Amino acid sequence: MMDIQRLMIIGGGQMGSGIAQVVAAAGMNVILNDIDPAYSLKGLGTIRNNLIRDVEKKRKSQAEMDAILARISLSSDLEDGRNVDMVIEAIVENMQIKSELFKKLDLICPQHAILASNTSSLAITEIASFTKRPDQVIGMHFMNPVPVMKLIEVIRGLRTSHETYLLVENLAKRMDKVPIEVNDFPGFVSNRILLTMINEAVFCLYEGVAARESIDEVMKLGMNHPMGPLALADFIGLDTCLAIMEVLHEGLGDSKYRPCPLLRKYVAAGWLGKKSGRGFYDYKKREQ
Ligand code: NAI
């Protein structure tokens, strides 16, 4: 089996930076790439802060932290992928933009390289079709926050080879994660269930069933969820939530998946949740 040693993560946002951290912590070299250098720099800042917290809490030594940071390099040039064994893509949830990226990666990356997508809802079979190596394209769906959450949903496209699947399963275990295989359906398992619940919570707010805090408290105290659905939506990003609902609605064709108009309105206003400072809650005034 190929020994994956050098990886490139594309997208230095919340997910990409977390993925770069766990890859480097598992001993591999990682290039964190973003079209906007300010984002990859911000991503590296988040990684550093996470590691400082780990050192303070004695979960890691200073030497371990330094070694992890030394394995991460930043890039804004896709050509830096010409020597990697694997790419994990974590850019915006948009098929058009992802398709252009995968076409370029297919030309740049070595023949043996695996191209994985962290998409939270889009079809892996379709993403793979933009490359000449569909057998080496796979879904690797991490959960947010990546350094904390154990699960990785692993999704085979129709043409993904068993060898690619085994390499990714092995990589997930090296990162101390638990890989679970699911089939290539819109939203897979996690987001088909989670986003339908979040969308229903937004409908509750929209229809005036209860105030936002009450909706979240009902789910926390009543269902033992660690976070309420509206706070969780802010954490995921409302643009990402809307994109996933559109994929579920279009892909499964059932009106029960129609995005709530209020979700659409917030995204149109630029209220994207925690990352923009405002979503269902206001993060400029209060820490959620
Ligand atoms: P984000 O908005 O925090 O970050 C996206 C990053 O991609 C930005 O820094 C942007 O500059 C960069 N980017 C956009 N186009 C690019 C390109 N062509 N080349 C290089 N960089 C590019 O988004 P987030 O939340 O990190 O999501 C990324 C992906 O991960 C999406 O596919 C999303 O569905 C998926 N995901 C998100 C989760 C969440 O909780 N937010 C959970 C699991 C998966």
TrEMBL record:
<protein>
    <submittedName>
        <fullName>3-hydroxybutyryl-CoA dehydrogenase</fullName>
        <ecNumber>1.1.1.157</ecNumber>
    </submittedName>
</protein>
<dbReference type="InterPro" id="IPR006176">
    <property type="entry name" value="3-OHacyl-CoA_DH_NAD-bd"/>
</dbReference>
<comment type="similarity">
    <text>Belongs to the 3-hydroxyacyl-CoA dehydrogenase family.</text>
</comment>
<dbReference type="InterPro" id="IPR022694">
    <property type="entry name" value="3-OHacyl-CoA_DH"/>
</dbReference>
<dbReference type="InterPro" id="IPR006108">
    <property type="entry name" value="3HC_DH_C"/>
</dbReference>
<comment type="pathway">
    <text>Lipid metabolism; butanoate metabolism.</text>
</comment>
<dbReference type="InterPro" id="IPR013328">
    <property type="entry name" value="6PGD_dom2"/>
</dbReference>
<dbReference type="GO" id="GO:0008691">
    <property type="term" value="F:3-hydroxybutyryl-CoA dehydrogenase activity"/>
</dbReference>
<dbReference type="Pfam" id="PF00725">
    <property type="entry name" value="3HCDH"/>
</dbReference>
<dbReference type="Pfam" id="PF02737">
    <property type="entry name" value="3HCDH_N"/>
</dbReference>
<keyword id="KW-0560">Oxidoreductase</keyword>
<dbReference type="InterPro" id="IPR008927">
    <property type="entry name" value="6-PGluconate_DH-like_C_sf"/>
</dbReference>
<dbReference type="InterPro" id="IPR036291">
    <property type="entry name" value="NAD(P)-bd_dom_sf"/>
</dbReference>
<feature type="domain" description="3-hydroxyacyl-CoA dehydrogenase NAD binding">
    <location>
        <begin position="8"/>
        <end position="184"/>
    </location>
</feature>
<feature type="domain" description="3-hydroxyacyl-CoA dehydrogenase C-terminal">
    <location>
        <begin position="187"/>
        <end position="283"/>
    </location>
</feature>
